[in-house]
Structure formats: C-alpha cells, structure tokens
Inverse folding.
C-alpha cells in the first residue's frame, strides 16, 4: 500500500478543519471514512461510525448550532506508512441560535489512512486542553 506524504496529510487536515470552521456538513463528513470512529469528551460513548456522528451533528444543526470560527495551532504529523497521526490544539467558537458564542480549547488527534487511492480520516479523538496549558512559558 502506498505511503501517505507529509503534504497530503497537511492538506487533508487543512480541508477538514476549514470545512468544520465553515459548518460545511457535506465537505466536513466527506473527509471521514464511513467506518471512522469518534471519541469526544462531551459524549458518553464512542461514536462507532460516520453515520452516528452525522446524526449527532444534524441534531446540533436543528438546535441552531453553528461554528463561528475554528483555529488550529501546534500541529504535529507522524507518518506511519499508509497511515498518519495528526495532532493539534484547536480553539473553536460556536453559537446556538442568537445566543452568545461559546469558546472551547481542546486537543485533537485525527488518524488519516490511505485506502483506494484517497486519504480519509478514520478516527478522531477530542479532549479538553488542560488548564495549565494556557500558562506563559518560563525562560
């Protein structure tokens, strides 16, 4: 199986984050394999496939939820043959209806895999950033 490249993973991650930031449902979920799994600290259970996450997302949209902005920082990519692990810090502002925006700061891991010539995300894990991650660095 053909190995993934750093450039492919950078582009795949950028497309995924950009689609999320735009609340572009079709483009966002196209970045994931059908059998992708999702572990979110905000959910009681692992989501076993893309359809389960799409259903959750649809419920959020019905409630008037949308992404206002999403900023990725501190990226790291580990290439592992046809698979790659992308980790980054993410700051997201969301809004539901006319309510105030909510800012979350989290750490995210996305596993990408080449299958059938394309690179898609096969797993996403989101966790809250530790409180001390915002402390200034010391010299």
């Amino acid at each position: 199986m053909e190995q993934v490249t750093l450039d492919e993973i950078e582009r795949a991650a950028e497309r995924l984050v950009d689609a999320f930031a735009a609340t572009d449902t079709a483009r966002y979920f196209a970045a994931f394999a059908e059998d992708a799994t999702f572990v979110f600290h905000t959910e009681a259970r692992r989501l076993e496939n893309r359809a389960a996450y799409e259903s959750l997302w649809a419920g959020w949209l019905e409630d008037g939820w949308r992404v206002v902005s999403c900023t990725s920082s501190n990226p790291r990519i580990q290439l592992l043959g046809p698979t790659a692990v992308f980790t980054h810090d993410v700051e997201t502002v969301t809004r539901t209806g006319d309510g105030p925006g909510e800012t979350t700061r989290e750490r995210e891991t996305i596993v990408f895999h080449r299958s059938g010539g394309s690179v898609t995300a096969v797993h996403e894990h989101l966790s809250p950033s530790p409180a001390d991650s915002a402390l200034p660095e010391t010299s």
User: Anything to note?
Assistant: The beta strands are 32-40, 65-80, 83-96, 102-115, 118-128. The radius of gyration is 15 Å. DSSP finds three helices and five strands in the chain.
